[in-house]
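User: Good morning. I'm curious how zinc ion would be positioned relative to this chain. Could you predict the structure with it bound?
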Amino acid sequence: MAVYNSPMPILMILVLAAACLPVPWPRPFESLDAAATAAITGLFVLGSILISALGCARVVRLIPEDRGAAVSLYYRLRRRVSLLNLWGSVALVFGGWGWAVRESATDERGRLTPFAEVLVPGPYLALLLASWFIWFFAERALHRGGMRAQAFWTLPAYVAQQARQFVLLLFLPVLLIATQQTISRYFPELADSALYQLASVFVAFGLLLILPLFIKPLLGLKKMPDGPIRDRLTAAAVRLRFRCRDWLLWPTRGLVANAMIVGVLPRARFVIFTDRLLESLDPPELDAVVGHEIGHARHGHIPYYFAFFGLSSLVGGTLLTLVESSAGWPDGVAEFGLLLAVAGLGVYIFFVFGFLSRLCERQADLVGVRAASCADPYCGGHSDETVLADGGRAICPAGVHAMVRALDVVMNLSGLDRPERGSWKQWVAAWWKSWQHGPPSHRIDFLLSLIERPERAARHDRYAFRIRLALMLLLVGALILAATALGRDEFVRQL
Ligand SMILES: [Zn+2]
Ligand SMILES: [Zn+2]
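Assistant: Good morning! Here's the predicted structure, ligand included:
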């Protein structure tokens, strides 16, 4: 939900979850056995660690000579290594590692050992863990070369900080899936009972609603201290009629520049700012960023995303049962049916959810503009005395510029330059890097166009509303059709 985030947590959770499903992963090339596959996997992990370590050493050496070049080299390295780790791990899982785990980690009755599915995405998780120990040295060196007075984390504190985020955001969902899989393997009668299924849906929803209440201790967040920043946030919330349980400060010692909103219910909802972002924004930019986060709540994006993923997986699951129970997979495809389904899910998420997410981010950007705007559509800039528009209904040039500057700040702090438009390769790279939010240049061009044509804002909101409604109706329609084709009893059973 952040203004700008590159690691794509939603996609990551889905990829990790898919890796834990009981998929008949393909066998490796004929001559390879499980041990050889494990050896190749180990070599890839070591190779990637070596590349990161050498790259980090270069960053550290470069800092005294050219700090700017070192910073951009560091972020480039991190992006490339993350992509290498992700796609390398996917290739390994498809190329034999997934099969090797399902083949070797079994008990005497041939069942997969409890929680062994976590080993399938294991190479990726191991690389993630190793990367904390490597990035630490580059981060610390960059911190020392910078202007910050505060001491940097120690290695154990740094790793603990990364581990907290990892467990809460990525590993907890994966662990829940592995638990559910383990139960259905070892206690199939229990897993088939309606009571158990009802209870697991209940637990999943309960966790989603309640988890935000624990995010403060889990991530080591602090209450936003009293002062001008807190007053500014509170004033923006009053203007935009937004309620949350508290404003939180995430002390990262300058490591992360981000803002996010977590939770759905006002009483269990927080807006979080990292220290780095807060100290980099001037007051109008702060209005724009908090407006962006409030925009996600105002337009109901979080519950919408949950409904989208819930309905999509129901439709997908029903279609899968339908294919299996009626015609069955065509010859030669049967073996890879579930695999194809997982790949199809990936494509669906990339295109459909990617499109939806960019639509919603633009809605949030527009609330950001409105949060920083006065009632005069031709205003020539704001002073300390300017009264900002109530209800977040107006758009003015100063508000647009505040949002654009805020995006620039977040981008620079995340090591992303505003990409120049030029070759198609740059264009593809820009889209790839900012799949969930759209390329920054696109976002900024659209925002700047509002100065001349403010009516484009309301038009986008209407457009987004219609598309979101149509998508929901389409999903519900598809579910009804698929469920009817399957028959009621069969449909209820596969739930
Ligand atoms: Zn956002
Ligand atoms: Zn103004």
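The pocket of zinc ion (ligand 1) is lined by residues 1-3, 292, 296, 361, 364 (CB under 6 Å). Strands lie at 222-223, 246-250, 259-262, 270-274.
Let me know if you'd like a different ligand tried.
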